[in-house]
Write a structure and sequence with these properties.
five-stranded mixed β-sheet; five-stranded antiparallel β-sheet; alpha+beta; elongated; single chain; 18 strands
Length: 648
C-alpha cells in the first residue's frame, strides 16, 4: 500500500517538484546566457566607439598637419626664413610632442622618408597619419626629455607572459606627415607626432565617451586602456584607489589571441585585480604590424550579483509556493488513500494467518468500496478452500512420511554400498600402480646410487668439494624409495610403519627450499622466508620433507605468471606451525572442501590426486593437522600444525 501511495504521490507531485524546477532552471540558464550575450554585445559597441574615436584622432592629426602645411602663414614663414619659430608656435598650439620640416632626401633624428611609410606618403604628395612605435634613441633624438615621459616601469602582473624587462622605454606615437612645397620648388614633408604614453587626457576622453553617466548599473565601472605590446601605457584602471595601473600587463591568454593571432577578444577577462566584461582589439602601425591593443570593459561583479539575486529570489518563491501547496494536496490525498489503507490492513492480517479478517465495506460507496467488497468475497472462498486443502494435506502427509522413511533407508544403504565399491576399485588401482612403480623406479634408483658411489670413489679428495651436493642426492634417492613405500602404505597402511624422530622443522623446511629452488627460479617467483622456532616435533624427516615439498610445488604450479611464495615456521603455544602461502590463482569455493580427498585433482593428466591426501595422512599420524584458506584470484595459504615432541 505504501508503494501505491508513494507512486500516486510521485505522479501527482512530479510536475510541480521536478518538471517545474527543471523548467525554471532551464529558463534561468537561458536567461543567463542571453544576459551574457547582451553584455558581450554592449562591450562590442563600446569597443566600436573607442576604436572610432582613436581612428578619428589619428585622422584629425593628419588633417590638421596638412592644413598647416598648406596655410599662407606657413608659406610666408618659409619665404622669410622663419620656419623654426613658426613650427615651435604651431607645435604648442596643436599640443604635439614634436614637429619638424623634412626636405626631400634629408634626414631628421637619423631617419628619412624610406624609414617611415608616413613620411614616404607625404613625400609622394599625400598626407598620411598612423600609430607608430619609436624606441628610446629615436624619442631622444626627436625631442629631448620625451624619453622620460615615455618610460614606464613594469609592474609584476598575475597570469602575464614572463619577461626579463624592468621597464617599457618605447613610445606609441600618433605619427602624421603632410606634403610641403619648399622655396625653389623642391618637395618636403611636415612631420609631427603626439606621444600616447601616460597621455591620461586621451584615455579619459575615450572612457567618458564610451561610458557616459548612467550607462552602467550602480556598482559597475567602465574602463579604457591603451597597450604598447602587452603593457598598459595609458589607462584609467586603478591598481590602488588613486594609482593608475600603468606598467601592468595583459594576461597571456588575451595576448595570444589579440597580438599573436590578430583576433578581437570579446569575453570576460581578469583585469589587474578584478573580472571585467572586456573587449580588446589589435592596433596596427603604419607598416601593418600589430604593435599594441585598445581595450574597453566594465566590471562583471554587479551583473553577476544580479544573476545570483534573481536565482535566489526565484528559488525562494518556488519553495514558498511548494510549502503552501504540498500540505493542502497531501491532506486531500489522505481521503483517497483511507479505503486503500483499510484493504492493506486486511491483507496483512490474512498473510499473518487470520483468514477471518474482512473489510466490512458497504456497497455503493464508490469504485474503491466495491473493490473492498469483492475482496471480502474472495477471502470467503479462500477460507473455504483452505479448509479443504488442510484436510487433504493431513492424509497425504501421512502417506508421504511412510514412503519417505522407506526411501531414506534404501538411499543410505545404497550410499554405503556405493562408497565401499568405489573405494575398493580405487584401492585396487592403487595396488596395481604401486607394484608397477616399485618395479620401474627401484631399478633406475639402484643405478643412480651405484654411479654416485663410483663418482665418489673416482673423485677421491676432490669429491669433498661437492660433498653437500652428494649428500642431497643421497637424500633424494632415499626419498624416492620412501615415496614408493608411501604409495604402498596408502594402499595397505596396515603393512607399513615409519620411524619417527625428533626433528627441527625449520631445518627441514630450509632443505626443502634448496630442493625446490630450480622450480621456484624457473617460475620467476619471489621467495619470502621467515624460518624461526626451536621446538622439536616427533615425525619422520622424509615424511615432513614430502609434505612440505608437495605444498611448495603446488604453490609454484598455482603461479604460472609469477608471484610471491611465502614460507614460515614459528613456535606456537603447544607445537610448531609451518605456513606456506602463495599469490596464485587460488582454489574455487566448490573445490576447496574436496582437495584432501584421495584421487581428486584439478591438474587433469598431470596429477594423481594423492599428494594432499598422503600429506594429510602423514601429518595426522604425527598428531598434527593441515588447514587451508584460499580465495580465487588472490592465492592460497596452507598451515601445518605439529605438536611438540615430549622430552626424553
Amino acid at each position: 500500500m505504501s508503494s501505491v501511495r508513494v507512486r500516486l504521490l510521485v505522479i501527482a507531485l512530479l510536475p510541480m517538484l521536478v518538471l517545474l524546477p527543471l523548467m525554471l532552471g532551464g529558463t534561468m540558464w537561458r536567461w543567463s546566457g542571453k544576459l551574457d550575450d547582451l553584455l558581450v554585445n554592449k562591450v562590442t559597441g563600446d569597443l566600436t566607439i573607442a576604436d572610432q574615436y582613436l581612428g578619428r584622432l589619428v585622422e584629425m592629426s593628419g588633417e590638421r598637419l596638412d592644413a598647416v602645411a598648406g596655410s599662407v602663414p606657413f608659406r610666408d614663414a618659409l619665404d622669410r626664413g622663419e620656419a623654426g619659430a613658426f613650427l615651435a608656435a604651431t607645435q604648442a598650439r596643436l599640443g604635439l610632442d614634436f614637429l619638424y620640416l623634412l626636405p626631400e632626401g634629408g634626414t631628421q633624428a637619423g631617419f628619412g622618408a624610406d624609414d617611415w611609410p608616413v613620411i614616404g606618403a607625404a613625400m609622394a604628395g599625400r598626407w598620411h597619419s598612423a600609430v607608430d612605435i619609436f624606441d628610446h634613441a629615436e624619442l631622444e633624438a626627436l625631442a629631448p626629455g620625451l624619453t622620460a615621459q615615455a618610460e614606464i616601469p613594469l609592474v609584476p602582473t598575475r597570469a602575464a607572459v614572463p619577461t626579463d624587462r624592468n621597464a617599457e622605454s618605447r613610445g606609441m606615437v600618433i605619427h602624421s606627415a603632410a606634403p610641403v612645397t619648399l622655396p625653389g620648388g623642391t618637395r618636403g614633408a611636415l612631420v609631427g607626432g603626439l606621444l600616447l604614453n601616460r597621455n591620461l587626457e586621451f584615455i579619459d576622453t575615450i572612457n567618458a565617451l564610451v561610458y557616459r553617466e548612467q550607462s552602467l548599473p550602480a556598482g559597475s565601472q567602465g574602463t579604457a586602456t591603451l597597450f604598447l605590446d602587452d603593457v598598459r601605457i595609458s589607462t584609467n584602471v586603478r591598481l590602488f584607489e588613486n594609482v593608475r595601473a600603468l606598467g601592468t600587463r595583459v594576461s597571456a591568454e588575451v595576448r595570444a589571441q589579440v597580438l599573436d593571432e590578430g583576433r578581437i577578444w570579446l569575453d570576460r577577462a581578469f583585469v589587474v585585480n578584478d573580472w571585467y566584461i572586456s573587449a580588446y582589439e589589435p592596433i596596427l602601425d603604419s607598416r601593418g604590424d600589430r604593435v599594441g591593443m585598445l581595450y574597453v570593459g566594465f566590471l562583471e561583479a554587479p551583473f553577476r550579483q544580479a544573476k545570483i539575486t534573481s536565482v535566489l529570489m526565484l528559488s525562494a518563491a518556488f519553495l514558498l509556493i511548494t510549502l503552501l501547496s504540498v500540505p493542502v494536496f497531501l491532506r486531500w490525498a489522505r481521503h483517497v488513500f483511507r479505503p486503500l489503507e483499510a484493504m492493506t490492513r486486511t491483507i496483512a492480517q490474512v498473510e499473518a494467518g487470520d483468514l477471518t479478517a474482512r473489510n466490512a465495506a458497504g456497497r455503493g460507496q464508490g469504485e474503491i468500496a466495491q473493490v473492498a467488497a469483492h475482496l471480502d468475497d474472495l477471502l470467503d472462498r479462500l477460507q473455504a478452500r483452505d479448509r479443504e486443502l488442510r484436510d487433504w494435506a493431513e492424509s497425504l502427509e501421512a502417506k508421504v512420511e511412510e514412503r519417505t522413511a522407506d526411501l531414506r533407508a534404501a538411499n543410505r544403504q545404497l550410499e554405503r554400498t556405493t562408497e565401499r565399491l568405489i573405494m575398493s576399485e580405487k584401492l585396487a588401482a592403487v595396488g596395481e600402480i604401486t607394484a608397477s612403480v616399485a618395479h620401474e623406479i627401484n631399478n633406475p634408483v639402484a643405478v643412480i646410487q651405484g654411479n654416485l658411489e663410483l663418482a665418489r670413489h673416482r673423485l677421491g679428495a676432490e669429491g669433498d668439494k661437492v660433498s653437500e651436493e652428494f649428500r642431497l642426492i643421497d637424500d633424494q634417492v632415499y626419498r624416492i624409495g620412501v615415496i614408493v613405500s608411501k604409495l604402498l602404505q596408502f594402499a595397505r597402511p596396515e603393512e607399513y610403519s615409519g620411524t619417527a624422530n625428533q626433528i627441527l622443522p625449520a631445518e627441514v623446511v630450509a632443505d626443502c627450499l634448496v630442493l625446490t629452488r630450480h622450480q621456484i627460479d624457473s617460475a620467476g617467483l619471489v621467495t619470502q622466508e621467515r624460518l624461526a622456532g626451536l621446538a622439536r616435533v616427533l615425525m619422520s624427516r622424509t615424511e615432513l620433507q614430502q609434505v612440505v615439498v608437495n605444498l611448495i610445488l603446488n604453490a609454484v604450479h598455482a603461479m604460472p605468471q609469477g608471484g610471491v611464495l611465502s614460507v614460515a615456521t614459528k613456535d606456537a603455544a603447544d607445537g610448531v606451525r609451518i605456513t606456506i602461502s602463495d599469490t596464485g590463482t587460488g582454489i574455487a569455493t566448490d573445490v576447496l572442501p574436496r582437495i584432501f580427498d584421495p584421487f581428486f585433482t584439478t591438474k587433469q593428466a598431470q596429477g594423481t590426486g594423492l599428494g594432499l591426501s598422503i600429506s594429510q595422512q602423514l601429518v595426522s599420524r604425527a598428531g598434527g593437522r593441515i588447514t587451508v584458506q584460499s580465495r580465487p584470484g588472490e592465492g592460497s595459504r596452507f598451515d601445518i600444525f605439529l605438536p611438540v615432541a615430549a622430552p626424553h
